[in-house]
Amino acid sequence: MEAPNALVVEDEPHIRELVTLHLTLEGFRVTGCADGEQALKMVAAQTFHVVILDLMLPKLDGMTVCHAIRRSPLNADTPILMLTARREESDKVLGLESGADDYLTKPFGVREFVARVRALLRRPRQSQTDGAGNVIVVGDLRIDPAKRQALIGENVIELTPHEFDVLSLLASRPGIVFSRQALLSQVWREDTHVTERSVDTLIKRLRQKIEPHGDSPARILTVWGTGYKFSDA
Ligand code: CA
């Protein structure tokens, strides 16, 4: 069997070398590059099993590269681990909007890095198109992506396709904040007729269906000035 391949996009040589070394030890064939333009050439030429992508890069930044990878024909579904120098929570939102699957804040330990890469390769892409049918369970809420069915306890909740997708996305990552823009791009994708207001309207309808107390939501929480998250309490 051919070894899986990884793309490492990092302009700091010692980090690129460290990451390359440990991916090699994990059995990857590694392609390294030091700027965003080079990275785009690589992802246009072949499919990778994983992409390690630094946020701050010369020529094209990691966010732009990440967007481009998600639109690329060969690597649209490739897991992307973003490396970032900043610790702020906003980075998570930023990264999710860009389509990255996970983050690592520099400086990071080698074991942590390897564990994250392994986890990325194990799990299906975090999206509503999760074909692996992994059931999401949060409290008494149960979401079955394969059947496209959501239940609270024993009761099936009637949801529109978009409501189902938004609920699945939020519930698949409790505690992670999704901006309205992130929800738009991941659920509505190419549909340019919807606006951020559409997200609010949909969340309102969704809450009416899944929140026992509509005026004080316990499942889908509003993060003021940012977006929404599923409760991780
Ligand atoms: Ca950098």
Describe the structure.
It is built from 8 helices and 12 strands. The protein is of the alpha/beta class and 233 residues long. α4 (90-98) packs parallel to α7 (180-188) and α6 (161-172) crosses α8. It is elongated, with a radius of gyration of 19 Å. The protein has a 5-stranded parallel sheet with strand order 2-1-3-4-5, sandwiched between helices. Strands 6-7-8-9 form a 4-stranded antiparallel sheet, covered by helices on one side. A 3-stranded antiparallel sheet has the order 10-12-11. Helices cover 39% and strands 21% of the residues. Bound molecules: calcium ion. Residues 11-12, 54, 56-57 line the site of calcium ion.
- Computed Rg: 19 Å
H/E element sequence: EHEHEHEHEHEEEEHEHHEE
Q: What portion of residues belong to β-strands?
A: 15-25%
Mean pLDDT: 85
- In DSSP terms (H or I, runs of 4 or more residues), the helix count works out at 8
First-last Cα distance: 44 Å
- Ligand list: calcium ion
Number of beta strands: 12
- Which structural class do the helices and strands define? alpha/beta
Main sheet summary: 5 strands, parallel
Note the overall shape: elongated
Helix % is: 25-40%
Task: Name the poorly predicted regions.
Answer: 126-131
Write down the oligomeric state.
single chain
Strand order of the largest sheet: 2-1-3-4-5
